[in-house]
Design brief:
The chain is mainly alpha-helical and 100 residues long. The chain contains 3 helices and no strands. The radius of gyration is 19 Å and the shape is elongated.
């Protein structure tokens, strides 16, 4: 997306923390802490930090890959579900000229 201002004519990028949007970082941390707490409740204290760390690292890698694919992935991910339009088929099409 390009801005129309003469001052800000570079492509705009969303705010990131360590290269990831804050929504994805919060989601990754929440899932890792949930696994950590559930493991501690189930008395699996020895592996709770390992499972939490693995879930956190897998979440960071998946989030980073999805941000590399589409920089506005958190905006698309947090859209409300609509029955008439699927979020899975989100594509951007640029047509120049006419089809032959």
């Amino acid at each position: 997306m390009k801005s129309t201002s003469l001052i800000l004519n570079a492509p705009q990028r969303p705010i990131t923390l360590f290269g990831l949007p804050p929504v994805l970082i919060a989601l990754t941390l929440f899932s890792a802490m949930t696994v950590f707490v559930v493991c501690n409740i189930l008395q699996l204290t020895a592996v709770s930090m390992i499972f939490g760390g693995v879930i956190f690292m897998v979440g960071v890698v998946l989030s980073w890959r999805s941000v590399r694919r589409d920089i506005h992935v958190e905006s698309v991910m947090t859209l409300p579900p609509r029955f008439w339009k699927s979020r899975k088929t989100h594509t951007r099409v640029l047509l120049a000229g006419k089809a032959e």
